Amino acid sequence: MGSSLVAALVVVAIAALALVRTVRIVPQATAGIVERLGRYHRTLLPGLNLVVPFIDRIKETIDLREQVVSFPPQPVITSDNLVVSIDTVIYFQVVDPRAATYEIANFLVGVEQLTVTTLRNVVGGMDLERTLTSREEINSELRGVLDDATGKWGIRVNRVELKAIDPPASIQDSMEKQMRADRDKRAAVLTAEGQKQAAILTAEGQKQAAVLAARGEAEAAVLRAQADAEARAMRAKGEADAIAMVFRAIHEGKPDQRLLAYQYLQTLPQIAKGDANKLWIVPSEMGRALEGLGGLFANAVAAGREAGAVPEPGRTGAGDGGARAPGAPDPAGDAPGTDGAVRGTPAPG
C-alpha cells in the first residue's frame, strides 16, 4: 500500500513536470529558440506554445524590439594626426533570432567592435575641421557599413549617431582663439562697412540737400522775377490808365490857355528844386498865356476893389494883411513878356 502510494505520487510529479515543460508562454516582441536533442528545431512565436518535454529545450529568448546602445568614447586619429574622442549611439533591431543566436556568440560586442573599427576608418580619412563639420556624412557611412556587416547576424542597423566629438584641450583652446579672432575680424569688417555706408549716405544726403537748396533758390529767383515783372507791368498799366484818364478828363474839360499857364506856374517850383538847376528855359509860347493870366489877376483885383474886399493902393488897415504894399509892382506888370525868359532869370546866352 505504501509503495503504491509513493509510486503514484512519483507519477503525478512526473506528469506535472512534463506538463510544465510542455506548455511555454512567449511574451510579445520576443522570440524563443527551441533545440531538440541539441540541434536547432524551431523558433517560438509570442503566445502559447507546446514543446516535447525532456526532448525540446528553449536555448534563449531574443528581444525583437529596436534597441539603443551607447558605446563609451573611442579615441580616433584624424588625417592630420590629431586624436579626438568620439561617442556613438547605435539603433538596431534583431530581425532573425536564429542568426542572432547561432551566427555570432554576442552580437552586442560584435556591433560595438565593428562600430569602433569602422569609425576609425571613416574618420582617419578626414582632417579635424572636416570631422567636426561632417557629422551627417560620418553617420551615413557608419550606418551603411554596419548594416552590411550585421546583416548575416540577423541584425538591422536603423541609425547611427555621433553623440560627441571632443578634440584635445590644446586644440580646443586654439580653435576658440581662432574663432574669437575670426569674430573680431568680422566685427571690424562690419563696423568699417557700416561707417563707409554711413559716410556715403551722409554725402549723398548733403548732395541732395545742396541740389534741392540750389533748385529752390533758382525757383524762388524765377518766381521773384516773375512777380517783379508782373508788378512792373501792373504799375505801368496803372500809370497808363491814370495818364489816359487824366488825358481824357483834360480833353473832356476843354481847358483854355490861361488854365494851362496856371498849371505850368504851379509846376515851376518842382522843376527848380534840383541843386544842379542853375538855369531853366521857359517856352516862348508861354508868354501870351502868362499875359492873359496877368490880365485875369488884374480883373480879379479890380472886381475886389469894387466890392470893397481889396483896399486901394497905399491904404493899410487891419484887414489888408494880404494887400500889396505902397510902391509894390503891379502883378499885371510883372507878367513876363514874349522875350522867352522869366524876369530875374538870365536868358540863355
UniProtKB/TrEMBL annotation:
Localization (cell): Membrane
Chain intervals for the UniProt region annotation (Disordered): 308-349
Top-level taxon of origin: Bacteria
Keyword Aminoacyl-tRNA synthetase found: no
Topology within the bilayer: Single-pass membrane protein
Classification via InterPro entries: Band7/mec-2_domain, Band_7, Band_7/SPFH_dom_sf, Band_7/stomatin-like_CS, Stomatin_HflK_fam
Keywords recorded for this protein, A-Z: Membrane, Transmembrane, Transmembrane helix
Domain Band per the UniProt entry, residue ranges: 21-179
Similarity remark: Belongs to the band 7/mec-2 family.
Record-given protein name: SPFH domain-containing protein
Species assigned in the record: Planomonospora alba
